[in-house]
Amino acid sequence: MYPFFRFSKAIVQAIAAKTIGAQLDFTATGEIKFRCRLTDIDNFLEMNNGRVLTLYDLGRTDFAIRTGLGRQLLQNRWGLVVAGSTVQYRKRIRAFDQVTMKTHIAAIDERWIYVEQSMWVKGKPCSSALLRTGVTSQGRVIETQAVLDAMGKPDWKMPPTGYVAEWIESDDDRPWPPKD
């Protein structure tokens, strides 16, 4: 089940943080902390890989609110969508571990905002995700320039480079839907 209580708590905490002056610039890295709960673990007593993706939602929500994107989403009646992701796992997260999640924008192209997120326990990276995200209006992804204009960063450029550009290129080569 989706962690609605945690999601609501993350929204309240992000609004409170922004209110007391802990807002983020669109170029910054957001950080939240939480504990791995018993509802997050699988039969191997570690955080379930599906839950990892779900909890990454909390980091993106915090980031959106604290950067002001959340306000723009509400004002413009926009939505957010994840159109692709890749996750790497390096270290197990066990029940009751204190987790630090980091979220930042890795790149932006004409249509997509590429977000990189990671989870850390005791200063060691446990997982890292790269997500292709978009802002939607009336069910369609809008150009990122409209988002940047609304955020007051009309001249901000962050083209995909390195592994992000390679991931985009590799994903473009992937047949969709896969042939049997």
TrEMBL record:
Family matches, as Pfam families? 4HBT_2
User: What InterPro entries does this protein map onto?
Assistant: HotDog_dom_sf, THEM6_lcsJ_thioesterase
- The domain of life is Bacteria
Q: Do you know which CDD domains this protein is assigned to? A: 4HBT
Listed name of the protein: Acyl-CoA thioesterase
Source organism (scientific name) = Psychrobacter coccoides
